[in-house]
Specification:
43% of the residues lie in helices and 20% in strands. With 175 residues, the chain is α+β, with helices and mostly antiparallel strands. Keywords: Membrane, Transmembrane, Transmembrane helix.
Length: 175
């Protein structure tokens, strides 16, 4: 009945109204109170019962329904909120793992003196940072596409947080 916009959800709570005070038209009273509160109210009759729907200016939807032979149900639907997207967290976790792994690979490469030729500086400490341009290139490619942007942001955050700290420690050990 109330479809959520794409990428959103509405929190929903239902309350069954067992008894209304005697002589009270629950639907007319609810509609009147909601109108006075600034809501746009629609009152409809269906084959299964009566329905009053109120749209609050803040985005809430109030629905009072009556089914044949059953108690009335008041449903309160909150304003649409964005759905949680696990891609950012997955990117941070992946980056937090890849940062130290990339640093360790660079560290082992820097320690391997056979990897150096006469053109390399005597100290291989700068090689501790060789993974950083690769990370920026991969992260930049992931940020270019809207479907991978959140993962790429998380990857850059996770790698930067762990990899830069680990590289700094390992660079200090090489000197």
């Amino acid at each position: 009945m109330f479809a959520d916009p794409p990428g959103t959800r509405r929190p929903r709570r239902d309350v069954r109204i067992r008894e209304a005070p005697p002589g009270t038209d629950l639907f007319a009273t609810a509609g009147d109170v909601w109108r006075r509160g600034g809501c746009q109210v629609d009152d409809t009759y269906t084959g299964s019962g009566r329905t009053v729907v109120a749209h609050d200016p803040a985005g809430y939807v109030l629905v009072l329904t009556e089914s044949a032979g059953a108690a009335a149900v008041l449903s309160v639907l909150g304003p649409p909120t964005s759905r949680r997207d696990p891609r950012l967290i997955l990117g941070v976790v992946t980056g937090a793992v890849l940062g130290p792994v990339a640093t360790c690979a660079s560290f082992l490469f820097a320690l391997d003196r056979s990897a150096f030729s006469e053109r390399w500086p005597a100290s291989g400490a700068w090689l501790m940072w060789i993974w950083l341009p690769l990370l920026l290139a991969v992260g930049g490619l992931l940020l270019a596409s809207a479907s991978t942007r959140r993962f790429g942001t998380g990857l850059l955050i996770g790698c930067a947080a762990t990899g830069i700290a680990t590289s700094g420690i390992c660079t200090a050990m090489l000197r």
